[in-house]
Design brief:
The chain contains 7 helices and 13 strands. The longest helix is centred in the N-terminal third of the chain and has 12 residues. About 20% of the residues lie in helices and about 35% in strands. The protein is α+β, with helices and mostly antiparallel strands. The strands form 3 sheets. The protein has a 6-stranded mixed β-sheet with strand order 4-7-2-1-9-12, with no helix packed on it. A 4-stranded antiparallel β-sheet has the order 8-13-10-11, with no helix packed on it. Helix 1 packs antiparallel against helix 2.
Length: about 325
Amino acid sequence: MRTDARPGGAVHGDPPDDPLTEALRTGPFHLALRTAVRRRGLALHRIRHHLAEQGLQVSVTSLSYWQRGERVPARTGSVQVVRALEHILDIAPGALVRLLEPAPGGTTGTPRAARRYQELIGSDTAVLHLLDQLDCPTEDRLHTVSQSEQVHLGPRRELWHREIQQLVRAHRGNVDRYVSIYQGDPGCDITRVRVDPLDNCRVGRVRSDRAASLLAVELVFDRPLVLGETQPFRYRITDGTGGECTEYTRGFRYPVGHYLLQVYFTPPTLPVRCYRFTRRSAHAPRHRVTQVPLNGYHSAHLTEQDAGPGIVGLAWEWD
């Protein structure tokens, strides 16, 4: 039975680690909806019929978009539809509605829909080409629940290495790998970049594009994940071949529960100023630019809690 009255619960009798309970607790909306639909065993046309019986007209196409994350219920009256879905799918009142709330600091009433991969990278076809070589769909089968990165710069102001601790959740069943993309700074010799699995993963196929200084690597889990299951893993990327590094960014297609970025500098080569910022896409202007301190351990950091899709990063200025 449920041990509290939070709206994130599923149905009575669900164990704490039930995929639907977890998806309703952490989101995103489309994963929780798809998990609830599968749990209930109803086809979308049957759900549309039940909604119509309550005087609510929603197309099967819209329901399909909602559960794939390509759109979210955003029109006037959509909350009423989502509340009806909660009843039809036999989940706690408010459990789905709460997942449509905007991120803190976001625009009121603007739900956090997933972003298409192309929206983040723009016209960078080199990335898409590498993903295609790995048979990796750009509509991800995983999303990041939380992530922590430590980035170390060397004495030549170069990006030396970065270590990533990540927790992902499966959007679909039978997912057994995560594809990481790395792009070196100008002058990088991508053939000398090394990827080391540190925890709960191994290196699979690796593809590179020397001209674009791009690397795509599969990090393979020990077994396929089922829908809604989570997987923690950790890995390191070592470079040190590129030129001067002046920023580090991370893009998210889906809302992320927690993100921490720490950048460490090597004395005596220290920046004079550090900034945090956001971008809508890779080549868009910076927004929400705020200066951050360089601490006594020669590092700067940013943290994001319940952040919407987009790009966040740190930048710095050298003498």
